[in-house]
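Page 47, continued from p. 46.
Same chain as before, 286 aa.
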Amino acid sequence: MTNSETTFLVFGDLHGRVLPAFRLASCWAKDHATPVAGLLQVGDLGYFPDPAKMDKATLRHAKDDSLELGVLDVVTLTKIADATFDDPHCPPGLWFTAGNHEDFDELERLASWNRDADFVVDHYCMVRAVKDGRIATLAGGLRVGAVWGVDGQGENRRTNLPWRGYIQDRAVSQLLVEPFDVLLCHDAPLDAKRVGYGSELLANLIHLARPRFVFFGHYKGDGMRVGKDYGGAEVYHMAGFELRKRDGTPEPGSVGILRWADGTGQFEYLNDDWLKTFSRHNWKWR
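Result:
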C-alpha cells in the first residue's frame, strides 16, 4: 500500500452499539496515529428510532443490556453522542446495510427523500444507510454496494420477517450494472458459514460482479475469512460486536481494518490483544 491509502474499520452486527463503535474507532485512530475515514457495517445496526416499533428480539435483549437501545442516543440530541462525536479522532461517518432487525418502514421513508445512493438516518448526520442495490462512493474512491435483508428463498430461510427484510431480486440485479469494490450484505452467500444456509442470490452476485471484498454478519461465532473460491473476491464473516466476552470486551473478528489505495486494498481483523483494552465498562472514557 502507498502513503495515499485510506483506512476504514469494518464492524459486524451492532444491535444498537453505534456509539461504542465510533468510540472504538476513535481510540484505534489515536493509538495507531492513523485517521479512520469511515466505518462500514454489515447490518442489524438495530435501527429502531421509535421504541414502539422495536421487534421482539430487540426488546428481549434490551431487558438485560441497555446497549441494545443505543440508536436512541443518536436519533436525537444527547450528551453522550455529543461527547463521542466531538473527539478529534472520531471518523466522519458510518455506512451500513440493513439486516433483519431494523425499522424498514422508517428506512424506506428516509430513503425516499433523496436520490443519492446513501442517506442520513440520525440527528448528527453521522450514520448513513446505503440504499438497497445501490453503490455509494466513499473516501479514497472506495465504491460500496449494499444488499439489504436475509435469504427468503432457501430451505432454511426465516419465515417471520416483513417482506422488506428479505433479499430482493431487484437489488441484486441493480448491482450487476456497474462495478464496485466492497459488498456489504447481512446474510452470507449460500454455504459460506453453514451448509444449507445463506443466499444463492448473493453467491451468484459475488461470482458475477466480482467485488474486491465482501463483508457479512448475521451468524454467531468468531469472524473468519470464508475459504471458498469466489472468483477473486475475499469474503469475510464479521462476528457480532456485542461486547459480551469476558470483562465485556469485543468478540474476536467483530472489527477489522480495510486499507484502500489506488483501486486495491488489504483487510485484516483487529488484533485481539488491542481489542481487550476496550470494553463495555470503559468505552465512554477509554
